[in-house]
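REQUEST ID: PR-0412
SUBMITTED BY: lab tech R.K.
PRIORITY: routine
TASK: structure prediction, single protein chain
INPUT:
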Amino acid sequence: MNTTDSASPPPAAAPRRALPAWRARLGLRLIHPLAGACSLLLLAALLWLSHHVAQEQPKLVRESLATFPEQVDGFHMIQEVPLTPQVLKVLRPTEVLVRYYQRRPEEPPVSLYIPFFAKQEEDSRIHNPAACLPGAGWQIVRRVRQPLPWRGKTAYANLVTLQKGLDWQMGLYWIHSRGRIVANEYRAKLYLMYDVFTRHRRDGALVRLMTVVPGGPQREEAMPEAKQRLLDFAKALLPILPRYLPD
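STATUS: complete
OUTPUT:
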């Protein structure tokens, strides 16, 4: 007669190590010690960031753009243009300067546009000219990075050639980011995030220079002259800016 052996009992499971009393009391039965430490570090980091970002921005020591010089080296102001209430409602700057400067009567003037924002927020921030100029009907025919001398080093701005029908202009612009000259909009945003966390600063400005390029057969010859005119004005302007756009 065949007999069936009784099945061997399964091996006994290893006894679970008892939790330390302090973990049992805190209800941390399912949390690995490393995960718990990471959670505490993350919580501490969030508390630190919330504390520092919530702090008030330090008082900015600067002069008003209303006192900006009417004479910038060899360029003198020939006109100041106030922005319309509709434009101001969209831009919402703390202060804005729109002026025309001219070096010689026979030479086209240079327009200077500086909107300053003491505290950049979603509805009050710098607008990128690369988006605004096409919206006004200007086509950006060419854009290159233009080196500028800045505090013993080389900074970069945007040099653009613009066309609207038969009209041509050349422009030079950059974001003035708390003592920095920044051409790239995304880099300026990274600097803003860094300064918010480390310096509690949200201020910034756009600096834009424009000049007309005469049309007709002389247009190609006038391009280098227009570029040099912008660079001459920019080099005269840079030492003045820190009085109005704080580091």
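NOTES: Residues 21-54 form one domain.
REVIEWED BY: pending
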